[in-house]
Amino acid sequence: MVGNTIYLAAGYPRVVELPGLKVVLSAGPGPVDGDTPIQGREVYFPSRERILLDAMAPPRRDEDFHYPRKISAEELEGRLISICDARGEQAFLELRDRVKAVGALLGTPKTRLEELDRLMGAILGTRPDRKMATSRGAGRAKGYDAPRMDLFHKLVQVLKVEELPRIGEVAETSRATTNFAFLESYFSNFIEGTEFEIDEARAIALEGKINELRPKDSHDIQGVFDQAHDPGWRARGIKDIKAFEEILRERHALMMAARPEVLPGEFKVVRNVAGNTTFVEPRLVVGTLREAGLLLHDVEAGLPRALLAMFIVSEVHPFNDGNGRLARLVMNSELSAAGEARIIIPTLFREQYLDCLRELTRAARTEPYLDAMTIMQRWTAAFAYEDLDATIDLMKRCNGFEKSLAKYQLLWPEDVGDEDVAPGQADASHPLG
Questions:
Q1: Per-residue confidence (pLDDT) for residue 358, from 0 to 100
Q2: pLDDT tens-digit profile of 150-173?
Q3: Spatial CA neighbour of 142 closest among 432, 240, 134
Q4: How many degrees, rounded to 5, is the angle at CA 115 between CA 111 and CA 117?
Q5: 58 Cβ neighbours under 8 A, 6+ residues apart
Q6: d(CA 28, CA 6)
Q7: Sign of the dihedral through C-alpha 399, 405, 410, 416
Q8: Closest by alpha carbon to 395, among 381, 413, 408, 377?
Q9: CB 3.0-4.6 Å disulfide test: which of 202, 249, 349, 356 passes with 368?
């Protein structure tokens, strides 16, 4: 049915006008395997295979009636991509085979069967030469996620013109770098649900004391800490865009080495989903990373490139697990490579951080993302990291370790001073004010 018109195949052509409804009958084959009878009557609902074959039919004229194509090439392409994404590539391959079988039963012209077969092959990435009707389809044929690339391009255009702050590195001594790396790892893991008491996490990262009851969680703390601390990784930005995907593989393999079940360093083979967001399909990961990697040097080094790199990794979600932690490590490495302050996302800011990513993903709104991340860089840079006990104490008094936004507000260090602050107390200058 299209609009208020129902199209039916029958033994003869006819158009029936009813109040609010138009029924168009066209001469065509009767029911075949896969067509479903409706309420036991001699009326059948067509199989998906028959619908696709019928949609490929060119406009035709039977006697005095003109039957336009019932679906546009763009709509058909979009429908096929949606089927492939919803059901998976194996089911799509099976559908492709059934189309051929049903086409033979219906006596579908060979040229039409071949055209549909080429279109489905292009969506599967096996016919990159096939001209597509939409940019989304063209991306699929070439192996990348076109809607994601459109989103990355939009962020690039904003980052090119937006004047972002440039805050210099604040952890400059060996001790401060070590302390910062620990806090970065602690909070980054907390965002992903790996929760430890701060003293226990400190012993894991700084003393190598693995929790025997939670060895893998302990290694998650160590995995992020090692890359945030090690000079070889800490400031390793993306200098060679051709090596982007390989750097991600290497970082992930090191970070997740204690979790062989998630296949460290290997790109996902099964799609991953978070809430209502479905990330890039496994087959399109490499192509999308390569296309997106070309954009990294289109923006300035430092915060602009760091925010682009983080969003690319977060949005592609190339691995089975560890994508959020990896994205933040990549971001902070770009910042350190440019001599700028790294970013910590405190526990109390977790929801705002995730919300701004969702806004960018689902509504292409860049402002919440840029606002949130620039605020977090300023907040992170407002602490001194030479004395870890003092830094932890001050972050606690700024409510950084709290979880409830209903009870607490994130405070600036200068607004806390040396006095105790009641829960929720805030100055107008706190980050969310």
A1: 95
A2: 999 999 999 999 999 999 999 999
A3: 134
A4: 115
A5: 69
A6: 15
A7: negative
A8: 413
A9: 356
Superfamily of domain 146-416: Fido-like domain (1.10.3290.10)
- The runs of H, that is alpha helices, within 266-422 are 285-293, 303-316, 323-337, 350-363, 367-381, 388-397, 413-416
| 201 neighbors 186 (Cβ within 8 angstroms) | yes
CA angle in degrees (0–180, nearest 5) for 283-279-49: 60
Residues with Cβ within 8 Å of residue 418, at least 6 apart in sequence: none
β-partners of residue 112 are none
Q: Which residue has the tokens 């160590």?
A: 222
If we measure between CA atoms, which residue out of 250, 403, 277, 266 comes closest to residue 321? 266
Report the C-alpha gap between 281 and 207 in whole angstroms.
40
Domain boundaries defined on the chain: 35-142, 146-416
What gap in Å lies between CA 230 and CA 141, rounded to an integer? 40
Length of the chain: 433
CB 347 within 8 A of CB 402: yes
How far apart are the C-alpha atoms of 101 and 58, rounded to whole Å? 20
pLDDT at 60: 55
Q: Which tokens belong to 397?
A: 């008094």
Q: Is 25 in a helix, a strand, or coil?
A: strand
H/E stretch holding 138 reads helix 135-142
**What's this model's pTM, rounded to 2 decimal places?**
0.83
Residue 16 host element (H or E): strand 14-18
Structure token digits, residue 27: 């001469």
- Measuring CA to CA, which residue among 44, 47, 26, 36 is closest to residue 103? 47
pLDDT at 422: 40
Using CA atoms, how far apart are residues 409 and 406, in angstroms rounded to an integer? 8
CA distance 123 to 99: 15
Backbone angles phi, psi at 66, to 5 degrees: -105, 125
Please report the pLDDT score of residue 342 as a whole number: 98
HSE, CB side, 13 Å, CA atoms: give it for residue 9. Answer: 18
Task: Report the pLDDT value the prediction gives residue 427, as an integer from 0 to 100.
Answer: 39
- The neighbour count for residue 292, using CB atoms within 10 Å, is 28
For the chain, list residues with pLDDT below 50: 62-66, 420-433
